[in-house]
Amino acid sequence: MVTSNLFHCRKNSWPPEEYVSRTTLQLLDFDSAGPPEHAWRRRLNSHANILKEFSVTFMEAVKMVRLGIRLWSYVREEASHGRKAPIDPFTRESCKPSASQGVPLGGMGSGSISRGFRGEFRQWQIVPSICDASPVMANQFSIFISRDGGNKSYASVLAPGQHEGLGKAGDEGISSWGWNLSGQHSTYHALFPRAWTIYDGEPDPDLKVSCRQISPFIPHNYRDSSLPTAVFVYTLVNTGKERAKVSLLFTWANSIGGVSHFSGDHVNEPFIGEDGVSGVLLHHKTAKCNPPVTFAIAACETQNVSVSVLPCFGLSQASCITAKDMWGKMVQDGHFDRENFNCGPSMPSSPGETLCAAVSASAWVEAHGKCTVAFALAWSSPKIKFSKGSSYHRRYTKFYGTSERAAQNLVHDALTHYKRWEEEIEKWQNPILKDESLPEWYKFTLFNELYFLVAGGTVWIDSPLLTEDMRDGHHQSEEMETMDVNVTEAQVRRTKDAVKHTTINDYNVTSVRSEDNDETSNAECPRNIESAKSQGKENMDHSLQLSPLLETSNESDDVGRFLYLEGVEYIMWCTYDVHFYASFALLALFPKIELNIQRDFAKAVLSEDGRKVKFLAEGNVGIRKARGAVPHDLGTHDPWNEMNAYNIHDTSKWKDLNPKFVLQVYRDFAATQDMSFGVDVWPAVRTAMEYMEQFDRDDDALIENDGFPDQTYDAWTVHGVSAYCGCLWLAALQAAAAMAFQVGDKYFAELCKSKFVKAKSAFEGKLWNGSYFNYDSGSSSNSKSIQADQLAGQWYTASAGLPPLFDEAKIRSSLQKIYDFNVMKVRGGRMGAVNGMHPNGKVDETCMQSREIWTGVTYAVAANMILAGMEDQAFTTAEGIFLGGWSEEGYGYWFQTPEGWTTDGHFRSLIYMRPLAIWGMQWALSLPKAILDAPKINIMDRLLLSPSTRFALHETGVRKIANKAKCFGASVFHCAC
Q1: Which domain holds residue 408?
Q2: Based on CB atoms within 10 Å of each CB, which residue in 87, 117, 782, 829 is the most buried?
Q3: pTM of the prediction?
């Protein structure tokens, strides 16, 4: 529960000795067994309070009643087709969210399982877009200790026993186990992707136990970071005078969360592998025709550690071997019979029956001696199937194949490679952790916010060009976007309500998809892009010498395709207006993934999907995807093929998506110096800019908003010119000019510069009030509100190494106003930056979003402050998110950071993408040399262009661009090399 201390005190350090005795820390000071100096920490007996969700006010409910009715109807319609709507505020999980989360398990994109700080395995996301938050309590580690002389023995689950359903008399299930741990002397230490649980004399006062959880999340390693596996290394230190026999037990239910274990036909199978790695495979036949999953739990046998297994036990009295029988065997013997390895696959489970397995690892620990025992968990679900039929193989299958035996190979490699993983993780993290100029809370929060790249529903497939699809078990050709170039004639091709042609200046792009998914294609364009790719590779290699952010391995550029959700409650892949904030993490750590996401959106810009969609806010009907418009997302039920799952508003009329695309592409281009990427995406960049001209209705080169929530704040109406979208547009003009110059489109560069000069004058004239930029140029009650995000365009301009949009005095004045009002006038600056604040110091209550504190936006504002030389204000601003979300006195949002919270701490949308924007702060603190050396645009040059500065059809340098790169880009150019 939140205490008033949250708003009156500040704790600047969390040394491990405040949680673990100095003696124990000294005993564990070897082989990474001890907790790190910088980490997020909790005692295991800490209360995991139920989290409080926000509620709309009466007036907000009245305004949204029509939307609510339409959304309810849409949710029901989707359910009738067996699908979950991407936004469903009406269905609540049976498991109420609580402050119990911890570091998730595994790498990226192969499904995820989280592990709470008290030891429970929860938040199951094995099937794409499906998240079950409930813990499976049969999944546990337990310990059994006996000493020479037999006068002391201990048997306990290594998790506190406070949970519903335990302690029933005569129970044959897990209530019969020893739930003896109080957690008073046990602590959890998190530094993603690792976590340490220290049992400081629990349950045996003379035994110190460290459990180290390791997952293969390794920046720039595109192989191991895709692996669905985790390792648990137990370090045992015997401080007693007698040697102790210690048996550790790992139990696992054949389940993918929820009640999936009741569906039947599940099979368990023991195995003995190489290098002493032995365990049990749990073959899970998923319901609803989802692809099967195989789990592997294993331990590593060494000279001092023996491994035994119990392949099957159940949780009911009807089971042949019950959970109570299994526990009794371990209490009595400390191990299982070796003959169990020879029993082969079990009989398939019956519907309603729970099938579990156990792996035991036993060792003698001498008096004052030490011992290490390692377990591993892996899950193999090689094929993912989306609800409209498209199936793909996950990224890790490129290295482990699609056999169900892959899980066995995964646990073997995890147990034999985890030390190398740790070395690479420490090499990555140490420079930041040892930087004494950084606040301690920032260091570990920076790394821990990366949990979302594992637990945010990520999907990583082994399909670089999506050229092959599997539908209903049959291989078919992927629906391909076929690009034609036709300088003199635009040919329109239609199939039903299909995607149709796009005319872009002096070349024509045709993207055709039929409604029934039959493939329709034009003659394939010959391609020869080797020289362009070579030039891009040379630039990338050169930039490696300049920046540690870029890939340094010799791996192929083929890193597959990557998706991540906007949030586990907003089920849309790669939501682009939010990716704008989150993408700094991917660019810094996995730049090839980031470039591929941008390529996916670049292709989308050049296509149109003519199928009709009902937009729920107004009830009007429009097409799914307009050509030239950046899609809101890559879809839900058929990503890449059916984009714009979001249907509240018509996002083709949003004003922030296209500028955000241009800004992200330029930042990525400047950071990587990848010329082939620049050539590939430039036509989409130019098209995205030209598309926005329709929103400049008074010929002042500045776009206007249209009196509805036409940007990422999709409940906050904007009238006329807005600070948020207008600033993004100014920045996009500057970025487009810089990129045009670099790829050789000199005319467009000059045109964008000319428009920038004119638009900047109009922007400042309409919005600058002497201390900040007004929310918008309208006459509504909140038009003069102070928006925290008003300088988002300036943030990207500075992050990409471009000149500032405004003079330094205006930038610093605006940011100081945001700090003084949006930050410091809300609970003394201990909650982050509220989105909207009236100039009289009262929170803007126009809508739910104006009165919310958005965690990711707060981090973005802090990054902007850093770039403006306001580091003290930046860290105070961002610290509010730590205090409210992560601190011990806060609201309990660790490892589930929500989109935002209200000023009383009630959340909206847990486990959300945007808080990855904290990596925008780190980007600002350590700009790579490639960014610092980015070309500066001299906007004061005399321009010999038409006075209107309208984008117009022109004999653009597109072909010259391609020739400069020695070939046409792969995306749209018909190669004549």
Answers
A1: 16-51+96-447
A2: 117
A3: 0.89
